[in-house]
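Is adenosine-5'-triphosphate placement plausible here? Inputs below.
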Amino acid sequence: MREPTEPGPTPLRATAAPAGPGGASPRASSASAEPGSTLPRVSSAPVVSLRGVSKRFGGVRALVDVDVDVHEHEVLAVVGDNGAGKSTLAGVLAGAHRPDSGQVLVDGVPVVLDSPAAARALGIATVFQELALVNDLDVVENLFLGHEVGSGVFLDEVEMERRAWQVLDQLAASVPSVRDPVRTLSGGQRQVIAVARALLGSPRVVVLDEPTASLGVRQTAEVLNLITRLRARGHAVVLISHQAGDLQAVADRILVLRLGRVHGAYTGETSYEDLLAAMTGAVRPGSGTPMKADQARGSGTGR
Amino acid sequence: MNRDGTRGGGRTLAAVDPAPAEAGSRAALRQWFHGEHGVAPIVVGLALVWVVLAAIEPDFLSAENLVNLTLQSVPVGVIALGVVLVLLVGQIDLSVGSVSGLAAAIVAVGTVTAGWPFAVGVLVALACGLAVGLVYGVLSTRLGLPSFVITLAGLLFFAGVQLRVLGPLGSINLPFESWFVRAIQQGFLEPGVAWALVAVWILAYLGMQVWVRERRRRADLSCVPWSQIALRTGALALVLAAAVGYLSTARGVGYSVVLFVVLVIVADVALRRTRWGRSVRAVGSDRRAALLSGVAVHRTVISCFMACSTLAALGGILAAGRLGAANQGTGGADTYLTAIAAAVIGGTSLFGGRGSAWSALLGVLVIQSVANGLTLLDLDQATRFMVTGAVLLGAIIVDMLVRRRRQEA
Ligand SMILES: Nc1ncnc2c1ncn2[C@@H]1O[C@H](COP(=O)(O)OP(=O)(O)OP(=O)(O)O)[C@@H](O)[C@H]1O
Ligand SMILES: [Mg+2]
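Reply from A.M.:
I modeled the complex. Tokens:
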């Protein structure tokens, strides 16, 4: 392993898979080649938007007329009670759920995210709440599942293993062996693997559904640090989290979901008590008056 | 030398670098036995079956009988290889017997009755297999029907089609002098050619390992110790040399046997070294996770059904060639059960995700050894079924015990 010159943030590009044959769509790959790194941090057009998205599961209205904009250089946190529809929102962005109505736009162009592969090809990578790791496959196989590195039809195991170590090092993951089936790993280790998988290939938008729920202090810090770095590099991050600490550390804007509806957007500085009130619909907080998303974003990105 | 030296990250690399020189070959041996693709239990089982049969009937191990054994194993083995693929992707195909019988009927009727060249007959039969698999795959993925039911329907349906194609005669003889029948019944490799193929195989195997080791060393990843490479290559060389050497004292290695082994090797490489193979294992062990990871689940499942039916058709064609005829019994009765049992005895899980192409070859050798041995002993079909059933049960129990120990270890 060539030692990086400094132990600090390793450039993410190092782990980025080149757009392989049949990989990212031309638009997604050209845009992610240098994701806005030269842009000043001013409000730009959203990378991904949801417009009037609704989703039902039988009688349950998991999402009702949801509008969301996700911008580059921004961490959008999504909070809400259990069953508020957060994972459903993540699923829509990830291509795992087709909305019943409403539109998904990428760079202002309506797209159909009808499969996780389609979402990934458009530059949206997701860490699912249930992780979606294949237990019988080993760590490397899981990390590259669906977008393996190889020449022709054959896989390049050596290159994949090398990149696997790189991205795991960035996350300070302590995994006994990258050739063990993930079934043998602990819950936290599995979560790190899932996060690492989303980061490979340098997606433009990273959706993280409770990525720190079962992580230790050090790994949580690394994930938050990484989210900050992702933002600095111009990626858009959607962070679903229950952890007040996560939100305070990285959120630029906080979207509150309640019973499938958007219940206001708040700045990253909003106190957790105020958010709790909004999530549960208890007291209307005095200090945390819902702001227009644009205002919230303006003050959020200044941090 | 390896990553252990470059980072102090508190990572235990014990499992990555399992064999620091001294324990090298012992660890290699253990890994061979317990490894994820471990075929060792079945190899031991096969040896056991042979020892028992040879003790009762020494003729079993005669070169001529073993040549027969290899030839007998090919048709069902090819079918079992297809079954391995559908099992790996988490599905099942009960209709492989009927499809193989249909393919045999198509070849016989096409070439004898309609006068097609054999190549055309074979291609048409294979194309039918491909189409059947496509239909299964589409029904299974688009409509979400369970493959058990779809292929059970297929079993009945294609058994009917087979009878219809054969017509009122019910049996059609293939001309003995045709190249097709001659190649399957009397085609054997020249010893020189057989040895050359063995040499190519061993060199390719060795070269591959050395090349991968060299690349890993340059990427500063852990490397398997040389002792392990030597051990593996030596073991392969020993097995191949023994097989070819001994078989050559009789008629030798049949063309159809070569075809089967090549198919197994191709399937094995495809399963372990290509995107497709990775998708197959992922879909078989956790379909939803595979889908969320961006695997083209439908395409993968359909491809496995297609490969399975095509191999079933090929198995039927080879069976017809071996018999010199296609009749109502081709691919009938216990063919599909034998093929599925072979795959499972060989170590492929019925529940998807785990198994290897080699399990088709090893499993079919076990089953055919039992059948062949019992025939030598003049025992009837009844005993054969009962013994095969017992072997199947025994194989699954052993497999489970090994697996459990591996998970605890
Ligand atoms: N696949 C599904 N089938 C049926 N109902 C579902 C499904 N997925 C979600 N739901 C329902 O939709 C609602 C929203 O679920 P969702 O998983 O989005 O909540 P969440 O905000 O992520 O909750 P949590 O904090 O517990 O993760 C819930 O009432 C749930 O019961
Ligand atoms: Mg959730």
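Short version: Chain A touches chain B at residues 1-3, 94, 96, 115-117, 120, 126, 128, 131-137, 141-142, 145-148, 150, 153-155, 157-159, 161-162, 165, 169, 172, 174-181, 197 (CB under 8 Å).
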